[in-house]
């Protein structure tokens, strides 16, 4: 009788245990760190996933993230001193902190919760491991969801679209970033599967650094990379599809010239008052005290006033400041399973720029010139690159072209798509899209006007070399460092030097003749050509300009042989003086330095036509070092299962104690990539350590 009396209780207890034990296990969020410092996050729901992603980024880049968020608040000088005052003034002038709060308030509750969770992961990591973060940087804590949106604005809208240096000089040319992107259709793939190559190029530091991660929850299983401090992946793939982005030549910021009168400005024949406010900023002193300074912020109907000269003022107008859902859009892109899903995510146009190159498991390839393009009533591209009259509503744009107006290609007959920051007309070859079918202000009217024309032509030639491309061949082509520009000029320069040059010029001609026209570490002659090309004034260099009828082989020829030979002799003498020999290997002159790593460069300047891009600045010694170029590289084949390799060139961490600071640079110097591990078994076979996040 006693047992029967307690039987219902025992059965109910068993049911509770059977149901709650799996649930308790399911609430566990794990980060599996692989041997390259890539976090693989497994979580039972999206909010916990975001929290763990914030935790993971802080583990890898905590010092950098807190500094970037402090700058995005416009309070970095208050935290760390006067060297940050210029940054704070720019952030406050652009209204980033206040707009970030407005954007946060406009997020849907779910996305607001995700932003808060990402911030919570950062805060809890620092609380758990306070000794791993530099003490002065903790002044930023606690981080909030508003900080994330402020960081997004500062990076995308006020560095990519309108960066501080160009705004200060009254120019609005978009960031001259670089990237390569390929999508190859099954018809052009040896394995009969679509393939994707992702390869952004950016500066090797600060707010431009990429971070690689693998995110798993019931709604997503995405692998890819994002800019440090961002809570979603910007370049990624899942089991169904993948995409990459490149900076596109789009006009997302304009400067208007205003005529000042009676304390206001003229607009459509009337005097309008400026909206004015004063921003107060604190500056931390070395003794720990503060001084205050103020910033007067004035705005017209066009936007914020960035300068005043005599009776003129200049106002900046930036696209997309009324579109707060860029992070949500990227999150939806990662959840897409079909091209239709993916385009549904894109159509709200919440991102103000970036070409998108896409491939999927169904065999589709897709290109979109993604941009917020103002509907303009006057002027072409060249007109809008200059300062625009602001005294009339004729030039004041207020709305954007919808998605269906943008250049777009799906499954072109050529079987491939490419972008190297060129206008959409060269996205495949022979061209399918034509500039005359779009507004003249949309972008550059031809490939011939692109500053990166040689890299674009090199990209197209690499794709045309083979009727079908294998996965490994795609990777090999990515590491092509041949300078397309050399192929246009050496056949004219070398004979001229042999005929007309002095002895040092004759020696230079012999070196250039033997050079393999690549920028590999052992390439002898690369240093001579690169320094010669950069010393010459590019405009007017070629005797034959770009011609659409010779699409891939112009411009070519040398217009002024006397100047070309004089510069060659001068550069040759300088190289011989500095390095003791004229045929010095490229890797001795150009170095890849990151953390404690110092390796010979393997790659060259993109604007000279290298597909393996490394741009250089002067180092402390008589060497040049990489400051910009290849960052994250991913090659994906949409087979079953998906096959992928990746590389984070400078490593996946910047924390001083991390072993992953620069640990992938050697692979890059060898032209190699790492396998991507996406199954739990593969990850655990290459596990560095595991964390559980409550």
Automatic annotation (TrEMBL):
* InterPro entries for this protein: Ntn_hydrolases_N, Pen/GL7ACA/AHL_acylase, Penicillin_amidase_A-knob, Penicillin_amidase_dom1, Penicillin_amidase_N_B-knob, S45
GO: which molecular function terms? glutaryl-7-aminocephalosporanic-acid acylase activity; metal ion binding
Q: Does the keyword Ribosomal protein apply?
A: no
Chain sites annotated for binding Ca(2+): 251, 254
Q: Name one GO biological process term.
A: antibiotic biosynthetic process
Ordered alphabetically, the record's keywords are: Calcium, Hydrolase, Metal-binding, Signal, Zymogen
Coiled-coil spans in chain:
none
The record places the active site at 179 (nucleophile)
**Cofactor: binding details:** Binds 1 Ca(2+) ion per dimer.
Query: What Gene3D superfamilies does this protein map onto?
Result: 1.10.1400.10, 2.30.120.10, Glutamine Phosphoribosylpyrophosphate, subunit 1, domain 1 (3.60.20.10), Penicillin Amidohydrolase, domain 1 (1.10.439.10)
A Pfam family in this protein? Penicil_amidase
Keyword flag GTP-binding: no
Which metal ions or organic cofactors does this protein require, according to UniProt? Ca(2+)
- Enzyme Commission code: 3.5.1.93
The entry sums up its family as follows: Belongs to the peptidase S45 family.
Q: How is this protein named in the record? A: Glutaryl-7-aminocephalosporanic-acid acylase
């Amino acid at each position: 009788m006693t047992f029967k009396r307690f039987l219902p209780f025992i059965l109910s207890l068993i049911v509770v245990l059977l149901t709650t034990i799996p649930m308790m296990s399911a609430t566990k969020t794990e980060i599996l760190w692989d041997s390259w410092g890539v976090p693989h996050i497994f979580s039972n729901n999206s909010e916990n996933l975001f929290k763990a992603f914030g935790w993971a980024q802080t583990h890898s880049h905590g010092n950098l993230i807190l500094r970037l968020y402090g700058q995005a608040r416009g309070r970095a000088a208050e935290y760390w001193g006067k060297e940050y005052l210029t940054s704070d003034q720019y952030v406050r002038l652009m209204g980033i902190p206040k707009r970030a709060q407005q954007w946060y308030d406009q997020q849907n509750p779910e996305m607001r919760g995700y932003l808060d969770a990402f911030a919570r992961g950062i805060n809890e990591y620092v609380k758990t491991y306070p000794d791993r973060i530099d003490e002065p940087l903790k002044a930023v804590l606690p981080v909030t969801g508003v900080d994330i949106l402020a960081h997004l604005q500062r990076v995308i809208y006020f560095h990519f679209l309108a960066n501080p240096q160009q705004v200060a000089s009254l120019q609005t040319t978009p960031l001259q970033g670089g990237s390569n992107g390929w999508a190859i259709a099954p018809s052009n793939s040896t394995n009969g599967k679509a393939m994707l190559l992702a390869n952004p190029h950016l500066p090797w530091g600060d707010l431009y650094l990429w971070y690689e991660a693998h995110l798993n929850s019931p709604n997503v299983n995405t692998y890819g990379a994002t800019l440090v401090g961002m809570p979603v992946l910007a370049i990624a793939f899942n089991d169904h599809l993948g995409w990459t982005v490149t900076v596109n030549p789009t006009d997302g910021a304009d400067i208007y010239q205003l005529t000042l009168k009676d304390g206001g400005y003229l607009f459509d024949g009337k005097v309008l008052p400026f909206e004015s406010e004063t921003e107060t900023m604190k500056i931390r002193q070395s003794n720990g005290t503060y001084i205050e300074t103020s910033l007067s912020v004035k705005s017209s109907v066009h936007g914020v006033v960035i300068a005043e000269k005599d009776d003129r003022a200049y106002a900046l107008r930036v696209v997309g400041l009324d579109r707060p859902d860029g992070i949500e859009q990227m999150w939806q892109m990662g959840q897409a399973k079909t091209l239709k899903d993916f385009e549904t995510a894109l159509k709200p146009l919440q991102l103000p720029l970036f070409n998108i190159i896409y491939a999927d498991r169904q065999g589709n390839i897709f290109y979109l010139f993604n941009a917020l393009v103002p509907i303009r009533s006057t002027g072409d591209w060249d007109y809008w690159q200059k300062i625009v009259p602001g005294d009339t509503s004729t030039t004041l744009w207020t709305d954007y072209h919808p998605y269906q107006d943008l250049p777009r290609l799906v499954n072109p007959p050529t079987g491939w798509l490419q972008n190297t920051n060129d206008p959409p007309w060269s996205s495949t070859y022979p061209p399918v899209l034509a500039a005359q079918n779009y507004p003249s202000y949309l972008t550059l009217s031809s490939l011939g006007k692109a500053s990166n024309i040689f890299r674009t032509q090199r990209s197209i030639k690499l794709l045309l070399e083979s009727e079908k491309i294998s996965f490994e061949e795609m990777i090999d082509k990515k590491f092509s460092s041949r300078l397309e520009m050399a192929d246009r000029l050496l056949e004219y320069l070398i004979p001229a030097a042999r005929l007309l040059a002095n002895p040092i010029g004759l020696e230079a001609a012999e070196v250039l003749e033997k050079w393999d026209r690549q920028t590999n570490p052992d390439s002898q002659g690369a240093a001579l050509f690169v320094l010669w090309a950069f010393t010459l004034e590019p405009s007017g260099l070629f005797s034959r300009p770009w011609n659409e009828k010779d699409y891939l082989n112009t411009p070519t020829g040398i217009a002024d042989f006397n100047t070309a030979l004089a510069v060659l002799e001068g550069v040759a003498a300088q190289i011989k003086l500095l390095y003791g020999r004229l045929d010095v290997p490229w890797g001795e002159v150009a170095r890849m330095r990151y953390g404690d790593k110092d390796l010979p460069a393997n790659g060259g300047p993109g604007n000279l036509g290298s597909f393996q891009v490394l741009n250089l600045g002067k180092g402390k010694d008589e060497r040049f070092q990489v400051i910009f170029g290849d960052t994250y590289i991913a090659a994906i084949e949409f087979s079953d299962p998906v096959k992928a390799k990746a590389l984070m060139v400078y490593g996946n961490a910047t924390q001083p104690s991390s072993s992953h600071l620069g640990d992938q640079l050697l692979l890059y110097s060898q032209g190699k990539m790492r396998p991507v591990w996406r199954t739990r078994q593969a990850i655990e076979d290459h596990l560095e350590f595991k964390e559980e996040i409550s």
